[in-house]
Amino acid sequence: MRHHRLLVPGAAAACLLLAIPASAADATPGAPGIGDSYYPSYGNGGYDVSHYDLRLKYQPKTDRLEGTATIVADARQDLSRFNLDFALDVSEVLVGGKKAAFKATGDHELEITPAAPLTSGRPFTVVVRYSGTPSKVVANGFTSWLRTPDGGIAANEPESAWWWFPSNDHPLDKATYDVSVAVPDGTQAISNGTLQSTSSQLGWTRYNWRSNKPQATYLATLAVGKFDITTDTTANGLPVINAYSKDLGDNAGAARASVERSAEIVDWESTVFGPYPFDALGGYVPNVPTGYALETQTRPFYSPKGFAKGANPSLIVHELAHQWFGDSVSLKDWRDIWINEGFASYAQWLWSEKEGEGTAQELADYTYASYPADDPFWKVEPGNPGAENQFHDAVYDRGALALQALRNHIGDKDFFAILKGWTAEHRYGNASVKDFVAYAEKVSGKPLASLFDTWLFTPSKPAAAQARAAEVSPAKAPARPKSWQRIQDTHSAHGR
Questions:
Q1: For residue 239, how many other CB atoms are within 10 A of its CB?
Q2: pLDDT tens across 412-437, in order?
């Protein structure tokens, strides 16, 4: 949340105080991390970003990226120094139009010292000029920049921004975006939101994209290459933009047969989760060797391997459900990953129910029966799985199982009211597992701590009596629902 002061005549003295810059003696450095329990070095303290303006130039042949990032932020303390998360080479930094000292520390920190301290409560602007070859940059032992035969892609979780723009890289600091990218004529640049304009000059075409709703840094994406692009509008008039690499081979047809259903799926999900929270939608499938998918805001990224077994609309259901659960309502801490993945997985169960391929109850029964008590699956707590298990099958399957247990316990009326109310109450904000439990208790009027402890925070299989109480303990081994394998394929496509 950004706090704006309402100035009244009697507040003249306060105005004068605000105009006084912070003194060097009072100012202190912002923290080099935002305080996440899994990734303590991610994000930064001392400020809050409201907008990123990225002006880029990218040459696919050499993987050379040049950029100027203009970052609009508010100081949250008197700042003598602050950090951005970034891994490319920086040539110049200006703060408030004045040159600032800077240096790289660690493998993804850009430490900036402005010419004068920044005053708490006041806005400031940072300009960073930079360049590099993203695919050659390794941070924390890996790269999140994907090369393709005709370009490059930025899409990964929980981090991808370091390889293409400086940022406060944590979901707690969401912002709006303008992304302007110049690429050689005949090549396209895809990003989030709506395409504002294109222009060509001297062999280069510039694409200007805008995301006008708060967006977490890991949900920002950039795809440069040669794409077949399809456009349409939803029944409500929202623009739909899908893009496919021209060299997807055997996976091309199945990819199109899946991604082209995005508008249909969003229309259905809107009836379950409430109004779609953004002003555009779609998806893109670049020619990359990876196997995962990612809910990049308004325009999910899909690997071709996600369609190697044929069309998979269930995968599209999962990534588009994230537009509500994860993108609009974002986690406060990476340990809260269940409020992203559990709900997106349950959306697949509801889709299966709608399509007649197995009800959510049948999927819950089969999930519970499929894993014996000594299976490591039950050792992972979806409510706090640990960084090493953030994308474990249990976060998906146990996560969805917890929601079916809740549905059975409180009834459909309250359950579906909670899904819509939750996405409305926390729209464009952040929330935690604890927040969801409290909200569900408020709506249902029932104490639910014990239920969530059993299904989200117990490192063992819930006992038969507990399962019976949640109505997920079948009397005999259930038949495998038709949708089961496709949903399992989504888990492997969503893990990193």
A1: 16
A2: 999 999 999 999 999 999 999 999 99
Return the structure tokens found at 3.
């706090």
Predicted TM-score of the model (pTM): 0.94
* Rg for the chain, CA atoms, rounded: 23
The whole-angstrom separation of Cα 98 and Cα 89 is: 20
- Copy the structure tokens of residue 300: 């999910």
- β pairing state of 109-113 and 47-59: unpaired
Enumerate residue ranges in the chain where pLDDT < 50.
Answer: 1-19
Task: Give the H or E element holding residue 252.
Answer: helix 252-259
Residue 20 confidence (pLDDT): 55
| Chain-centre distance for alpha carbon 54 | 19
Q: Are 201 and 187 in contact (CB under 8 A)?
A: no
Write down the residue that tokens 């660690």 correspond to. 106
Cβ atoms of 234 and 242 within 8 Å: the answer is: no
- Asked whether the beta carbons of 222 and 190 are under 8 A apart, the reply is yes
CA–CA separation, 192 and 93 (whole Å): 26
SS3 content of the chain, % helix, strand, coil (to 5): 35, 30, 40
Q: What is the largest CA-CA distance in the chain?
A: 75
Q: Which residues are CB-neighbours of 325 under 8 A, at least 6 positions away? A: 273, 339, 340, 343, 344, 347, 423
| Closest C-alpha among 355, 398, 407 to residue 378 | 398
Place of tokens 């640990």: 386
pLDDT tens digits for range 301-311? 999 999 999 99
Query: How far is the C-alpha of 319 from the C-alpha of 316, rounded, in Å?
Result: 5
Strand 293-294 relative to strand 281-285, pairing:
unpaired
> What is residue 358's three-state secondary structure?
coil
pLDDT digits (tens, 9 = 90+) for 255-275: 999 999 999 999 999 999 999
